[in-house]
Amino acid sequence: MKINADLIIRLRHQKSWSQEELAIAAGLNLRTIQRIEKEATISLQSKKSLASALEVDIHDLDYKETTEMKSYEYKTVSIKFNHGWFKKGISNVDQALNEEAIGGWRFKQMVIPTDSTGGSEQMIAIFERELVE
């Protein structure tokens, strides 16, 4: 089962114990302590022994996944674009994208809407940035 290895290391350091001292206090093999701290996996019996030696509730050692929700804001930027039959030329797309990046916007997607002849006079760049609360 998964375990909070960082917590075990922190508790061991609070007691100023080496891995070997923790192994002795918990009645476990030194190699078992090394594996637990490195791989963050443990058997139920070893978990009980560690909790007792570290003087914590057994459930305190459980690994808890934290899911962090992020919020984003989006914006679109139109870039002139002459493409199609008998049209030639493209504006400086790099410059337009870099100008938005300076403001903390990250390029997400480029959309090129076309008319019935397959031509287009603009590109629409979609940008996003994380909202900081």
UniProtKB/TrEMBL annotation:
Residues 8-61 form the HTH cro/C1-type domain. InterPro entries: Cro/C1-type_HTH, Lambda_DNA-bd_dom_sf, YjzH-like. Pfam families: DUF4177, HTH_3. SMART domains: HTH_XRE. PROSITE patterns: HTH_CROC1. SUPFAM superfamilies: lambda repressor-like DNA-binding domains (SSF47413). GO terms for molecular function: DNA binding. This is HTH cro/C1-type domain-containing protein.
